[in-house]
Amino acid sequence: MKTKRSYHILLSVFTFPLLIGSVLLGFSSCKDEIDASNLVTKTEATIWDYLDSVAVYSDYADILEVVRTGEGSNTSSLASMLAAYGNYTCFAPSNEAIRKYVMEVTDSVTDDWRTLYETDSVAIIDLAKNSIIDNGDARAYSVADFPTDGGAFGLANLNDRMLTCTLDTTGQYVINGMAGVDRLDVQLGNGYMQGVSTVITLSTSSVFDLIAAAPNMKVMTELLRQTGWGDSLLRFRNDENYSTDGYPESQRYQTDIPTGLPIAQHRYYGFTAFVETDDVYERELGVNLQIDIAGNISNFDAVLEALRNRCSQYYGSEDAEDLTSPDNAINRFVAYHLLDGAITYNRLVRHCNEFGYEPGTDLGNPQLSNLSVDVWDFYTTMGKYRRLVKVLQDAEETEHPIYLNRAREYNNGRSGNYRHATAEPRVRGAMVSAQNITTDETGGQLTVENNAENGYYYPIDDLLIYDNDVENDVLNDRIRFDISTLMPELWSANIRGSAGNFFTRDYFKNFVDVSDESNIFYLQSGVSGGGGGRPWSDYQGDEVMVTGIYDVTIKLPPVPRAGTYEIRMGINMNPRRGMAQVYFGSDRYQMDPTGLPLDLRIMSSDNANSNTPDLDVYAIYPWEDDTDDDQTNLTIERNLRNQGYMKAPNYFWSGSNMVVRSINAVARRIVTTADMDPDEAYYIRFKSALEDPNGQFTIDYFEYVPTFMVNQNEEDIW
Length: 718
Hints:
This protein is an alpha+beta fold. Among the domains are: 15-196, FAS1 domain (Roll); 479-711, Jelly Rolls, CATH 2.60.120. It is 20% helix and 23% strand. The protein has 18 helices and 33 strands. The strands form 7 sheets. Strands 1, 2, 3, 4, 5, 6, 7 and 8 form an 8-stranded mixed sheet that branches. Strand 26 (579-585) and strand 27 (592-593) form a beta hairpin. Helix 6 (113-119) crosses helix 7. The protein is globular, with a radius of gyration of 27 Å.
């Protein structure tokens, strides 16, 4: 066995009190205090230098020398990687933790990792790769960056899996519900070493298998089995027929992206399930579950009957006896719990540039402690009958819980701040938990794994059903949805909000038709393109950019209910943008144009470009600043509407600390007004009106607005 050389972290008597004081100050707003004695000052040594010289991590260091970064024998070891320049976050298990892990894996046959490696090398490779996050060009994670509510870190580990983190009642950070961080913030020349008391393991099970393994989710487990939806949650990586061939690197460069963007190497299946715990079914259906000796529900027929009676009120009685039929009420009930795409808890909603919010210095990992206003997204659920579910994070409740289908009243006047207007919500909705915490057989607390290889499930505390409150209240409103919510592949690859990427033309299933001349980029302010570390004037700080002589057709989400809707899209004008003809309809092959082409180019003395016509924003539409007079403002808005435009919402702001409503190059285009049905699919098409191979067109967000709100002037400026 090799000899470890001596290594010391020196703490100056002058710097140590300053370090401890600053750490305690940084956590002064938290209820739980961090043990400052575990914090270590910065040194220029690398993570590998540290691990190779501290005896308590000797087994881990030896493992890193054996495990390779790739599959080939000519690839570097993880030890070499952590000895080189970069930004890494390393959750290093102690020798004791590794020996305990080996004993568990081998059923107490041995505690020697080398013996295990000879018979099950994957167990040791996973141990190493699960413990390291490559932060790339971003700084590594210190404890100040750790999620505290069960959310995930912004970047995946070397096994391409997300790690979650909670801050428990003792003030200890716990990774993936199991590994307590017992040595914090050893800051080194290429990142942070965080010591953990338990080896970090990640389930290789599917979402369905994890739900089935949860002792408090027997009802949903049986519903998933009997409806057949459980089989739909078993798929993993979707690389069949996926190839990046034919996409030269030159395509990934644009004027706004001087360094180019990486191309997505994999395409994933991913799923998110919202699951009522068994006590919710007992309470809401009035049926006490009877569990037999095998752990199954012996009176499940009574549960089915009560649930069928409840669901048939909203989903009808078609195919009442066939639970596998997509028309069956219970099948539709289950489908409404499922999203196509894997979303970590702290990204169920996207914080970036909502009114009054400061995201911090890292837009890819925004702070989640000091929220300003409620933030929400609308997602499309699975099944034949696609429906919207609203996911909202309450900014004013303690701990900022997340709810499904919650409705509130807001201070939404012209001089308002969009804070809650009433203490209680109009519709409470179902609260979502980040973790599945229940009790074990002895009555002790048990945290059940909910991070599957192909997604996540989250416990909810009320029945999730598309009832009258949801259809006629929660969703009978302006529906503003970000383009990224139509791209579940972004969520499953953990790209939304955290990275910019270039994509193949067949990557997104909702981009149903993409011409060979189209290039697709996903851009996020602060992590791709220009703009520095401040939010762009995009809703939620991100956008899709299509370039070239593009022609792209996108499948839109369903409307909440049958009716007449005004369809709008957010626009952000720029002299490098292009001009597109917009089409809309229910037949993707025969859509009608919605009017004159939409021109996103503008010209001013500050951004003159010889290749851009001499256009001016005021020549495109009659934009004027808001005034202190409401009647004057209504006249300005009426003039804009007459030209097919609206001012941008007051709800979000740009990096210049201006609400985008006050920026004349940011607006909403009224695409069309149409009669729409929730059971019909609708599409929007953008076709370049210019023969410009360098043309750009950005897609930010859309709005569905019931025309009664428009006609009766019931819509606010937010």
